[in-house]
Amino acid sequence: MKTAFFNTKSYDRQSFNTANKQHQHEIIFFECHLSHETVSLAAGYSAVCIFINDYLDTEMLEKLAQGGTKLIALRSAGFNHVDLAAASHLGLAIVRVPAYSPYAVAEHAVALILSLNRKVHRAYNRVREGNFSIEGLLGFDLHGATVGVIGTGRIGAIFAQIMRGFGCKLIGYDAYQNSACLEMGMTYVQISELFAQSDIISLHCPLTPDSHHLVNAEAIAQMKTGTMLINTSRGGLIDTQAAIDGLKSGAIGYLGIDVYEQEADLFFEDLSNEVIQDDTFQRLLTFPNVIVTGHQAFFTSHALANIAETTLANITEFEQSGSCLNEVKIEQAIASK
Ligand code: NAD
Hints:
By secondary structure, the protein is α/β, with parallel strands linked by helices. The protein has 13 helices and 12 strands. It has helices spanning about 10-25, 60-65, 85-90, 100-120, 120-130, 155-165, 180-185, 190-195, 215-220, 240-250, 280-285, 300-320, 330-335, and strands spanning about 1-5, 25-30, 45-50, 70-75, 95, 145-150, 170-175, 185-190, 200-205, 225-230, 250-255, 290.
């Protein structure tokens, strides 16, 4: 299928070119985002392929449909960046990659925990400067710590399994109890209990209108002093200003985030020669007990290969049958809200 890829980096082009040897779609890679300014580039392409920070509103979807696009292939699991109602109205199909490597994201959450706890980020700099003092690098044993998992789906369950391996006590919050989590000894609790009992809280639920600012000032007030908060899910789950206040008061003892509310203006680009205008983000970076990574939790070679293979298989399936198992239906989106 003639497909235009937007917002591509070298690693996308490499993984898709490799996977396309089998699928043989006619593809073109654009580095630019799909936006109001660039949507005309998609004219004549039956399919467009986009990433999480390409936002498709009604006007752009109309232009795509007018240009002959039939299919929008998301290189992501999440679909909150596309107006599904408008796409459905215009007869545009949306397909996605429901799971590519839950291990990648779960393992990155654990990397943030270990780094924050044992202050690896600070130790790395100290030793390179010849400073071998261990003052200020005191950590705690993960063994015996209570870990609260919010969202116990694919990623949350794998994260829980890893933390179980450290000898942590597991508590979870989710409308659906995952049998794998129950088997590994997780106790499901109300969210207020999870906030109150956890030494470490890790977020693994999707961003929906219900979960927006799930961690706000009220939630932080219920936490133990010095709680570690980890977010590898979506930035909007945390009220960033409330987290900053929590860090200043000591309520939050450690913050590890791979996602940020306003990340669309920052992440995935090299801004090292620019003055960052987002003062809230810059304030976060001043804390010694905060680690921010730029939405890289998914970024393993396994995940990239899976994303490329599933995306191209989705396009092939749609081309051959006019439908796809990984199609996002409007009813599904409403159900997840
Ligand atoms: P999943 O659908 O398997 O699991 C999500 C779980 O969250 C489900 O069990 C669901 O019942 C639960 N849930 C929904 N709303 C909730 C709420 N308000 N409170 C508590 N639980 C709730 O999804 P997954 O594959 O485990 O992915 C989880 C999230 O990870 C995704 O939504 C995405 O935002 C994020 N993610 C991040 C990256 C990254 O690179 N940082 C990559 C992939 C996915």
